[in-house]
Amino acid sequence: DSHIQYERVGADVTMKCGSMDWDAAVTWTANGTDIDESHLNGSYLILKNVDLTRSGQYSCYEGSSWHLKYQTYLRVGTPPKEPVLMCRSNNYPKGFYCSWHLPTPTYIPNSFNISVIHGTKEMVCEKDIYPKNRCHIRYLQLFSTVKYKVTLTVTNALGKNSTTLTFDEVAIVKPDPPESVVAKPVPNNPRRLEVSWQNPSSWPDPESFPLKFFLRYRPLILDQWQHVELSDGTSHTITDAYAGKEYIIQVAAKDNDIGTWSDWSVAVHATPWTEEPKHLTTEAQITDTTSASTSSFMPPPTTKICDKGAVVGSGAVAVCWTAGLVLAAYGVLFI
Amino acid sequence: MAAADSPSAALRRRDLCSRGIRLAGKMRSDVIDLLDTYVERQGLDASASVVTVEGVPVAAVERWDEQTGTQRLLENLTAYRAFRVLLAQMLEEHREQLGDADTGLGRALAAVLLQVSAFAYHLEELLRLESRGPPSEEGTAPPPVPHLGLFERKLRGLGVLRELAQWAVRSARDLRQLTKPSPGSSSAPSWAESP
Fold it and tell me: Per DSSP, which regions of chain B are E strands?
C-alpha cells in the first residue's frame, strides 16, 4: 500500500508500519537503505525536525519474513507564502493577463486558483499552456470606471495563501517595448544618427490606439542620457551626437492617453558618420582631395601640413606635432 | 448620400474629427486636474468608490469595436448633452454654497463646462455631415435634480467628473475610429456600416 505523505520542514514525523503492532519486529528503510534502530520507537519510525533531505521513499518490512508491510513517499516542504501576482495589459483594448509566482519554493506540488471580479460579474481567466503560471482575460467592457479585483489562491498539502490585486482598466496598460530598433549614421553628417523602430507586434490597433515614444541615447563613454519624447512617428534623427563617438540608443512606448511606459527596448549601437582618414599622399593628390572637404565640424585635413613632401628635417616635424596638438584640442571641444 | 460623400464633406469630417480628438485630449487633461481640485476642496478621499450615479451617462460599453460610426456619434452626443446639464447643476450648487466668491473650483468647473459644450457642438456638426443630423434636444426635459444632502451631492459630483474623464478618453478613441478607412473601400469611411 503506497502513500504520499507531506510534512513541514522542522516537524517531527511518526510513521506507523501499517497495521503492525507497536511491539512487532520490523525494519525500516529510507530509499533502500536500512534505518538505524535509534530512530525507532517500537515499530514506529520517528523522524525529528525533518529537513528537505529527509524526503524519499520509506518502507517497513516485517522482521523475519521481510514482507513489505508499509510504504510511503515522504515529501518535506513548506506551506505557501503569499504569492506574488502581477496583471498587465500589453494588448489594449483586447484584454489583460495575470502572472504569478511564489517568492520561495515550497518543494511540494502547489495548485493555483485565480478569480477575477468586475463589479458583480465573475470573469474567467483562461490559463495559458505556456508559461504555466499565467492566464489571460478578454475585456468585455471598455472605458469602465469599475475596478477589477483579482484574487490568486495557492494551495498545497500543508496550507494555503492568497493575494488580491485591485485595479482599473487603464492602470495596468503597459505596452511591450518597441521592436526592430535600428540606428544608422547619416552620410556626410558627423553629428547625426537616424533612429527608426516599429510598434510592438503585441499592440493590436496602433491606428485607433496610437503609441507615443521616448528615446534615450548617450555616447558609451558618458553616463548621462539624453531624452526625447515623440508624440507620433516611428523614427527620429539625433542631431547633436558627438562626432566619432559610439552611441547606445533605446526606445520605450506608451499609449497616448493611458497606462505606463514600456520597458526600454533592446539597445542598439551606432556611430555617426566620419570622414575617412586621408592617407599620406603626394603634393599633386593633396590639391585634388583637400578641395573636396565639405564638413565644417571636421578637423582640417592633416596632409596639407604633414605630408611626406613637406617633412624635411626637424622643422617640418615640429609643424606636424603642432598640427597634431591643434587636432587634439579640436577633438576635446567635442567631448 | 452623395452630399455626405463629397470631397468637401470628407475634408470637413476629417477636420472635425482631428479637432475633436485634440479637444477630447485637452478636456480629459482638464477634467483630471479638476478632479484633483474637487477632491481637495470638497474634503473627499480620492480613492472613494462611487456607486453608479443615477442620471450620469456611463462610458463603459460592450463590443465597442463593433459599433458603427453613427452609434458612436449618437452615444457621445447623448452623453455630452447630459454632462452639460450635470456640470451646470454642479456649478449652480457650488455658487449657492459659496455665494459670489470667485473660486478656483468654480472657474475650473466653468471651463470644463465650456469644453463639454464645444465638444457637443463638434458632435452635432459631425452628425449633420451625415444625412441623419443630430437628434433634437427640444422636448427633452433636463433630469430632475435629486434631493441630496451636502455630502451626497459631493459624492455625486465626484461620480460625474470621473465618468466624464472616462468619456473623454473614449471620445478620442471613437473619433479615431471614425477616421479609419472602412475595409474594402478606398474612400471615406461609411458610418452606417460596422465598424
Answer: 61-62
Enumerate chain A positions whose Cβ falls within 8 A of a Cβ in B.
93, 140-147, 170, 207-210, 256-258
From chain A, pick out residues whose CB is under 8 angstroms from the CB of B169: 143, 170, 257-258
> Domain boundary at A35, A50, A77, which?
A77
Q: What is the pLDDT of residues A209-263, one digit of tens each?
A: 999 999 999 999 999 999 999 998 999 999 999 999 999 999 999 999 899 999 9
In terms of residue numbers, what domain contains A58?
3-77
Report CB contact under 8 Å: B180, A209: no
Residue of B53, B161, B169 to mutate, interface with A, max A Cβ within 10 Å: B169
Gap from A290 CA to chain B (nearest CA, Å) = 53
Strands A68-77 and A84-88: unpaired
Please report where in the chains the cell 571641444 appears, as a residue.
Answer: A333
How far away is chain B from the Cα of A91, in angstroms, using its nearest Cα? 14
Residues 6+ apart with CB under 8 A from A81: A102, A103, A104, A161
Kindly report the CATH number assigned to the domain that includes residue A153. 2.60.40.10
Is B60–A144 a contact, with Cβ atoms under 8 angstroms apart?
yes
CB A135 within 8 A of CB A104: no
Strands A134-138 and A84-88: unpaired
Q: Among candidates A130, A14, A10, A20, which has minimal Cα distance to A76? A: A10
Instruction: Tell me: do A92 and A107 sit in the same domain.
Output: yes
Task: State the smallest CA–CA distance between residue A250 and chain B in angstroms.
Answer: 27
Q: How far apart are CA B3 and CA B8, in angstroms?
A: 9
- For B60, the closest of A93, A143, A170 (CB atoms) is A143
The answer to whether residue B32 neighbours chain A at the CB level (below 8 Å) is: no
Residue A198 lies in a domain: yes
Tell me, yes or no, whether A191 and A120 share the same domain.
no
Per the rule left: phi > 0, alpha: psi between -120 and 50, beta: everything else, B59 is: alpha
A94, A49: one domain: no
Q: How many domains does chain A have?
A: 3
**0.90 exceeded by pTM:** no
Here the ipTM equals: 0.84
Is residue A30 situated within a structural domain? yes
| Domain-embedded: residue A210 | yes
Question: CA nearest B170 in A: which residue?
Answer: A143
C-alpha cell at A110: 502547489
Nearest CA in chain B to A118: B60
Placement of cell 504569478 in the chain: A100
Size of the A and B interface in Cβ pairs below 8 Å:
46
Distance from CA of A142 to the nearest CA of B (A): 5
Residue with cell 522542522: A10
Domains and CATH numbers, chain B: 14-136 (1.20.1250.10)
Q: Consecutive sets of 10 residues in chain B, 195 residues long: mean pLDDT of each?
A: 67 91 94 92 79 85 93 95 94 80 83 96 90 68 69 88 94 91 50 52
Number of H helices, E strands in chain A: 3, 24
